[in-house]
Design a protein that fits this description.
Strand order of the largest sheet: 1-2-3-4-5
Number of strands: 5
Number of helices: 2
Oligomer: single chain
Largest sheet: 5 strands, antiparallel
Shape: globular
Mean pLDDT: 94
């Protein structure tokens, strides 16, 4: 499974590439605790950017930040 590691300043999160057609990235903490999933919910036509959402409050709060990180990566 392809992964990225993202430093929030408080912890390191692991972003796991989707393993199925859902397109959901699984977000985990350093101790492999699943926080939730990240996915593209919509596309902002005005800014020409995807709108990222999380399946849990913890992930949704930083969804845009994580999504931009994924977009800049080679994952």
């Amino acid at each position: 499974m392809d992964t990225l590691h993202y430093n929030t300043g408080d912890m390191i999160l692991t972003i796991n590439y989707p393993i199925d057609e859902s397109g959901h990235y699984c977000i985990e903490t350093e101790d492999d605790t699943e926080l939730g999933h990240l996915y593209i919910d919509d596309f902002d036509e005005h800014h020409h950017t995807p709108v990222w959402k999380g399946t849990t409050e913890e992930v949704n709060i930083i969804a845009a930040e994580l999504g931009e990180f994924i977009e800049r990566s080679d994952l």
